[in-house]
Design goal:
Length: about 350
């Protein structure tokens, strides 16, 4: 049996494990694997600052160890007071000038890239404007020049700059796609601007990077980059109304009676809840659940049990946190709504 006083020996092992585990995770949410020009510039600045800090640490420790060894008390030395040095102009100049030089090495490219990011946003008339509105706890994306809006899945053309206008409807959030660039705050009543660009056709994960409430950690979204032709086709499909088959008409009626006051199902629609146009083509439900009938059923019945603090009312019986005014639906009615939602496709 291990004695308690010997447990301190495991501390280095735990420290090593923590260090190794920090390298585990999804590469699509890593700022160390840039997939666009903004992310690459920011990674360069991170490497530069880390290199400067590492240089300072190494130099300080080398000097420290040299002094520790060189001027240690040796066997046979008498207890004498070393020569007292009040100051050295040479050393004072060195440790004043060197930090200034290091700060300039870091400051010049940082200022350059910061202003370049702002100027690129202002001057690039060919950039695709996208307005992002953060809600608790979901994301709304509007394409004002294309006349469409969507939620949770942000679709962009590859190789084209995207000029973002960021705001929030309730509390402070933060828009962050690690593979494409750093985070930018979204504030109620204010608009922040910056741009991103994806160089590859791929899907990237985005997150809210500002503690915003009970389901902050579940406020995820996806960014899909498509080639120009595929993006144009997606825009056209978003503007084409979905055909509702006869066996989904009952669900459409139930949806209009219970959900349409918050959820739009057309190209430009905006509401208190996410626009569900093209919903059946999304890979996730509520941004976090796999897209299948069981996930949809669980979400419709009791959203608060999945995303605490969500504003969507619960339509199932005996929800975790009943919302005044919400009315339960029968199991068959929920199934009919699910069938209708699965007709809202984008090719």
């Amino acid at each position: 049996m291990i004695r308690w006083q010997n447990l301190w020996r495991f501390i280095p092992l735990f420290g090593l494990m923590m260090l190794l585990l920090t390298g585990c995770g999804d590469e699509t949410i890593s700022a160390l694997r840039p997939r666009g020009p903004v992310a690459r510039d920011q990674l360069f600045l991170m490497k530069l600052s880390f290199g400067i800090m590492l240089l300072v640490v190494v130099v300080v420790f080398v000097i420290y160890l040299y002094v520790l060894v060189r001027f240690r008390k040796k066997k046979g030395d008498k207890d004498i007071i070393p020569k007292q040095v009040e100051g050295s102009h040479t050393l004072e100049i060195i440790w004043t000038v060197v930090p200034i030089i290091l700060l300039l090495i870091l400051a010049v490219p940082t200022v350059k890239y910061t202003f370049q990011l702002l100027e690129d946003h202002r001057d690039n008339k060919d950039a695709l404007p996208v307005k992002v509105t953060a809600h608790a706890f979901w994301w709304q994306f509007e394409y004002p020049t294309l006349g469409i809006s969507t939620a949770q899945d942000l679709v962009i053309p590859t190789g084209k700059k995207i000029a973002f206008e960021l705001t929030a409807s309730d509390v402070k959030h933060s828009f962050w796609v690690p593979s494409l660039g750093g985070k930018m705050d979204t504030n109620p009543g204010l608009t922040n601007v910056y741009y991103l660009q994806a160089d590859e056709i791929d899907t990237f994960k985005g997150k809210c990077a500002e503690l915003c409430g009970a389901s902050h950690s579940l406020m995820d979204f996806k960014v899909k980059s498509l080639d120009a032709a595929a993006f144009d086709q997606w825009v056209a499909d978003m503007k084409t109304p979905s055909t509702v088959p006869a066996d989904a008409k009952a669900g459409e009626t139930l949806f209009k009676d219970n959900c349409l006051s918050c959820h739009a199902v057309n190209a430009q629609g905006l509401g208190a809840g996410p626009n569900l146009n093209g919903f059946a083509s999304r890979e996730l439900v509520a941004g976090i659940l796999p897209h299948n009938e069981q996930s949809l059923r669980d979400w419709i019945k009791d959203p608060q049990s999945i995303k605490p603090g969500a504003k969507m009312p619960a339509f199932g019986e005996n929800p975790l946190e009943p919302i005044p005014g919400s009315k339960p639906l029968q199991e068959q009615q929920i199934n009919d709504i699910i069938k209708y939602l699965n007709t809202l496709t984008v090719k």
